[in-house]
């Protein structure tokens, strides 16, 4: 293919996103083949590999923010994006340029025409190639789905992190917590420190078995880290004191809040301790990194306050466990008595009834809608499921933009929650309003 004739970004992204037609195809062989063609860029930089059901994106961003504050040239690969594809691949918070997307995507798209390759496989190889060329000091890599057969699991990281475990993507990962845990635990590598932030004792034997199998030292963070909450703040930040095996960090401000985020901080601090000989960081870097996560990494829509009065909150809680933490954090940060207009849209393969049951107690009106994505549940079907579990005040919208417009015009407390695709369209619509969106 002639690069000069086909390097306009819209057509490249159209071709890239068209690879979704191949769906999710677990396995490493296609990724390894593409990497081999490019002289194995994933072997040219140190990495930290993060898996988990919930919390892995926040954990990756915390790590990247701290390492950036410490002066390291830090790559960050996360998924999915919210507004722009470029968000997935960053160095020191700066998204990959359109020109570099074209540069790294086109050769890989050419290869995908020879043999079916998935969107995520191409994107992963792009990220690794970009980080290698840009000579990052270290890259923080989030798994896409699972762990064992995820495209990112070709890495030989310097530390592996596993965040909380819950049921999600059960058609690929299994229908029990144990089966999901085995898939996630497979990112633990030979002689490589493993950090586990999943608190349930019942799952520990699975992690221990994998660690023993590959001779990996393992740390369960809840055995070594404790905390005292200083304050939960109305802007969904928090102040916390963390007690670590090597000392106490007093009154740390973290720009994202929740008991689950405290667990993620434990994992981050444990990982940093395990690599301190090669990547030392100061207490000041930790403080600044946790206070300015969004500024340093672009992380957004993690229980984020967009407007103060009336409150407008957005979150990408897209499974029951994520929504439970979302509801808990709303209460902790001072919104326990609030009833909300809730704009909700979700993928059809989720446990939608359970998610609606979790949202029901805080719902004034449900604005049922559907993102423009082939896997999305229709607004009509969502409304019917909501009625079946006893939600009565339901408004149905065929587009996210009309749902957002209607909710904003009520001038009532509003939550936008569900799929990343919902967040994308909602934020796009909100950009048309003059009240200005808060940013951390």
Can you describe this structure?
With 440 residues, this protein is an alpha/beta fold. The chain has 2 domains: 3-297, UDP-N-acetylmuramoyl-L-alanine:D-glutamate ligase (3-Layer(aba) Sandwich), CATH 3.40.1190.10; 304-430, Mur ligase, C-terminal domain (Protein-Tyrosine Phosphatase, Chain A), CATH 3.90.190. The protein contains 16 helices and 17 strands. It has helices at 9-18, 29-37, 56-69, 98-112, 119-133, 170-173, 177-185, 204-213, 259-274, 283-291, 293-297, 320-335, 352-359, 379-388, 400-410, 420-430, and strands at residues 47-51, 74-77, 89-91, 94-95, 138-142, 159-162, 194-196, 218-220, 226-232, 238-244, 247-254, 304-307, 312-315, 340-345, 363-368, 394-396, 414-418. The protein has an 8-stranded mixed β-sheet with strand order 4-3-2-5-1-6-7-8, sandwiched between helices. A hairpin with a 2-residue loop joins strand 3 and strand 4. Helix 3 packs across helix 9. The longest helix has 16 residues, at 259-274. It is globular and about 55 Å long. Residues 1-6 have low confidence and may be disordered.
In short, what is this structure?
The protein has 440 residues and is α/β, with parallel strands linked by helices. Helix content is 39%, strand content 18%.
Observed structural traits:
440 residues, alpha/beta, UDP-N-acetylmuramoyl-L-alanine:D-glutamate ligase, Protein-Tyrosine Phosphatase, Chain A, eight-stranded mixed beta sheet, six-stranded mixed beta sheet, 16 helices, 17 strands, 39% helix, globular
């Amino acid at each position: 293919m002639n690069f000069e004739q086909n390097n306009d970004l819209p057509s490249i992204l159209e071709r890239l996103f068209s690879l979704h037609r191949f769906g999710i195809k677990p396995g490493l062989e296609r990724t390894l083949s593409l990497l081999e063609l490019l002289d194995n860029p994933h072997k040219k930089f140190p990495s930290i590999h993060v898996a988990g059901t919930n919390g892995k994106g926040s954990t990756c961003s915390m790590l990247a923010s701290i390492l950036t504050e410490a002066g390291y040239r830090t790559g960050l690969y996360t998924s999915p994006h919210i507004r722009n594809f470029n968000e997935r691949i960053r160095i020191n918070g700066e998204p990959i340029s359109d020109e570099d997307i074209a540069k790294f995507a086109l050769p890989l798209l050419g290869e995908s025409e020879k043999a079916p390759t998935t969107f995520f496989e191409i994107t992963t190889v792009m990220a690794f190639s970009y980080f290698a060329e840009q000579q990052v000091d270290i890259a923080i890599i989030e798994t896409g789905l699972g762990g064992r057969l995820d495209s990112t699991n070709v890495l030989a990281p310097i530390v592996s992190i596993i965040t909380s475990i819950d049921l999600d993507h059960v058609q690929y990962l299994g229908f029990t917590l144990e089966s999901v845990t085995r898939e996630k635990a497979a990112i633990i590598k030979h002689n490589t420190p493993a950090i586990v932030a999943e608190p349930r004792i019942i799952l520990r034997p699975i992690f221990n078995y994998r660690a023993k199998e590959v001779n990996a030292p393992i740390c369960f963070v809840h055995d070594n880290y404790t905390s005292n909450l200083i304050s939960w703040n109305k802007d969904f930040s928090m102040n916390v004191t963390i007690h670590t095996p090597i000392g106490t960090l007093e009154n740390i401000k973290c720009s994202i809040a929740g008991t689950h985020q405290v667990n993620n901080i434990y994992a981050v601090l444990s990982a940093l301790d395990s690599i301190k000989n090669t990547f030392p960081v100061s207490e000041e870097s930790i403080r600044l990194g946790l206070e300015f996560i969004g500024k340093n990494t672009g992380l957004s829509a993690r229980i984020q306050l967009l407007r103060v009065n009336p409150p407008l909150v957005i979150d990408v809680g897209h499974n029951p466990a994520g929504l439970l933490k979302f509801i808990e954090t709303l209460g902790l940060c001072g919104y326990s008595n609030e009833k909300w207009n809730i704009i909700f849209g979700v993928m059809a393969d989720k446990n939608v009834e359970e998610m609606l049951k979790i949202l029901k107690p805080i719902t004034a009106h449900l604005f049922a809608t559907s993102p423009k994505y082939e896997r999305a549940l229709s607004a009509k079907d969502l409304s019917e499921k909501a009625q079946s579990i006893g939600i009565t005040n339901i408004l149905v919208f065929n587009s996210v933009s009309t749902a957002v417009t209607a909710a904003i015009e009520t001038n009532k407390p509003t939550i936008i929650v569900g799929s990343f695709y919902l967040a994308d369209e909602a934020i796009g619509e909100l950009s048309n309003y003059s009240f200005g969106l808060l940013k951390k």
